[in-house]
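Following up on my earlier thread - several people asked me to post the actual chain instead of describing it. Fair enough. Here it is, all 117 residues.
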Amino acid sequence: MSKRQKGRRHRRVNRTPRPVGLSRPSAVRPEPRAVVTAPERRPAPAPGLGRHEARTWDGLCAFGPGGASVDDLCASVGYQARTILKHVSGLEDHGLAERRGDRWYARHETEGALAGR
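Reply from S.P.:
Thanks for posting it. Predicted structure:
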């Protein structure tokens, strides 16, 4: 065989022999497995938010009425400061976040709806 021509030797797929034993399972049925369901997904707080912005929103809400700095959000959410700034400015555009000084505060949709009236 020349070096440029590939033959069967380069293929490693299905070269291992199959295990020896019964091809059909025995009459004894195994115990049923416990069904694990995925955690319930909460909808995003606003229709224009993606899952990453929603994660930042959840992190901001977790700090409560004390608000959070960008560094606090970086530590809790796990994104870089530039990404957090992009997310909270988007939240501010949606009326869900508010900046006072160097801290960001969560504004809930009901507060934003009441402020608009």
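The first strand starts at residue 97 and ends at 100. That should answer part of your original question.
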